[in-house]
Every structure is written in C-alpha cells, then in structure tokens.
Amino acid sequence: MTNGRLKHLFTNAKPYILMIGLQFGMAGNYIFGKEILNHGMSRFVFIVYRNAMAVVAIAPFALFFERKSRPKMTLSIFLQIMVLGFLEPVFNQSFTYLGMKYTSASFTSAIMNAVPSITFVIAVFVRLERVKFKEIRSQAKVFGTLVTFGGALLMAIYKGPGFNIFHSASTTQNQNGTQESSHNHQTTGALYILMGCVALSAFYILQSVTVKKYPAELSLATLICLAGGAQATAVALVAERHSHAWAIGLDYRLYAPLYTGVVSSGIAYYVQGLVMQMRGPVFATAFNPLCMIIVAGLGSFILGENLYLGSIIGAVIIALGLYTVVWGKAKDYSKSDPKLASSEDTKSLPITSMDDPKSDINSVNLENQPPTNDRLEGLNKLEKESELYVTTEVY
C-alpha cells in the first residue's frame, strides 16, 4: 500500500520535477547566448551549430530506445515537423537572440514570460483549453495569466534603482555606460523578443498536437532539430557568406552551441513533449517565470548585469501568477481523475456479477421479458442477492 502511494505521488509530481529542472537548464541558454553575442558570433551560424549538435547528441538515443515503438511517418506529420522546425529553431531563436543583442539576458528572460499568456490565448482560440468563467479553476488560469503578463510588463517598463550583489560598486559603475546604451534600444529589443514569444507559443501548441499523433518524444525532438537545422542553414548561407563567420574552435564557439543544442533544444523538446502529453501546453509554459529568476541571478554573477528594483517586484508578481495558473491546471487534472476512476469501476461491475451463473441466466431471461413492476422487483432482489454473494466470497 505504501509503495502504491509513493508511486502515485511520484506520478503526480513528475511533471513538476521535469519542468523545474528544465528551467535551470534553460537558464544557461540565455547566459551562453548573451556571452556568444558579446563575442561577435553570428546568431545565424550559432543557430545552425546549436541544432546540429542537438541532432548528434539525441539521434543515437532515439534510434536505440524507440526503434520498435516509432510510429509510421505520414505526410501530415512530416509537414507539422517542418513547421515546428521553422517556428522555434529558426524564427523564435533568430528574433530572441536579436532582441537579446539589443538588451540583456535578464531582460530577455523577463519578456519571455509573456509566452504562457500568449500560449493560453492561442490554446483557447484553437480549443485546446476551455474557459468557463463560472468555474474557479478557469478564473484562476485567466487571473494567473494576466498577473504573469502584468509582472513581465512591469519588468520591461519600470527599472528603478539598480545594484549588483556579486560585484563591487566600481565594476557596476564601469558597466553603466554599456548597459545604458543597450537600454536605449530597449523598445526595439522588446519588439523582437515578443515576436519570438508568439512563434514559441505557436510552437508549443503545434508540438502538443504533433506529439499525440507521433508519440515518440526522442525521435520527434531529433526530427525537429534536424528540420530546424536544415532551414537555419539555408538562412545562414544567405546572411553570412564569409567563411570566417563559420569558424569554430575549442572555445565559446564550441561550448555555447554544444550546451544550448543538447540542453535547450534536444532535452527541452523531449521533456516538453512528455509534460504536454500529461498536462498540456499551458502547464508546460507556466514554469517559464522560474527561468527568469534563475537568469537574473546568473546574469548578475557571470555577466555582471545589474539587478533592478522593478525586476525584483516583477519577479514576485510573476511567481504569484505562476502559482495561480499551476493551481488551476492542477484542478483541471484532478477533475478528470474521478471520471477515469468511475469509468474503470463501471467496467468492472459486469465481471463481479458473472461470478454467479444463476444471476446470468436470470438476467438474460428478465432482459427478454417486458419490464413490469414484478419483473423490476425481481431484478432488484437478484442484485441484492448478488451483492451479498460477492461480499461473502470476499470475506
């Protein structure tokens, strides 16, 4: 009984553990991305190498573990994979890194918190999410989405006083000139990042649909990275025609694509596919604000970025919105469980009644006769006798 309860608790906690762990991994995407842009590497070439390394890292696992369970490829699934490869590896990554180039890693991760709100709106529009304003759980999801978006908007608009908890005051003052110049392009950068948010939200929605038709998460992640890498290569060959832009060595040009490819692309697509099968796309995107808080700390420690009062207040508001959305999704999940349990109980009833052969014969005879009052009373009596028979058999 104890093992069953532990297994049940782990099953319920599994999507939470996966998404929280993924946010720590995704935080490195912003840190490595900003660092590599500061070193002058082309974002188009970076995206190509990132997806290529993701394919190399994940393809062997997909070929081995899913060699027998991989579904048949159809034209519809192939086209969906091509669209997925364009939405996230090409469109989202291109505009997100472009916006990050104009701003900072912390600012980018803050604006990306609009993804849960946009995903929820798209999910409602395509009827993957249902909203009944009379239900508290639907109200919680709507309210949490608005609060999360409001917190991210506050972080984008209001800065307040800045400070750096990991570096000295002199270091902070030396970086003010660079950060002020980047903040001059804050509006432009925010616009590019929001364009990436829309593409990423659409990616989540389409991925949740595709993974149901092609339930081989590792293979699907590999194919998405392969399709995105091929499309990104075509874009990069047009944008970067100089051979020196494609140079790579044992430095950040190798480490950054390797980490972001394996963790932020390959593992992320795989984990998101698993969680979406369990809880849906809105639940998966609701954990994005945690990544922002992690990036804020790492950005201050590694990149020397300042923390602002507006970011701290916005982080608290976003955390409240995150809790509200997750609570609403948890109620959705718990609401569906009793239905499954009742359906299983209903299916088990005929098995119990068949333990007594007399009840089978009498039931068939009664079903073939008109339902008079005497017949109904006899049927009720037989049901009570059957229940007593099953009870004595159990004891």
From TrEMBL:
It comes from Trifolium pratense (Red clover). This is Uncharacterized protein. The lineage of its organism: Eukaryota, Viridiplantae, Streptophyta, Embryophyta, Tracheophyta.
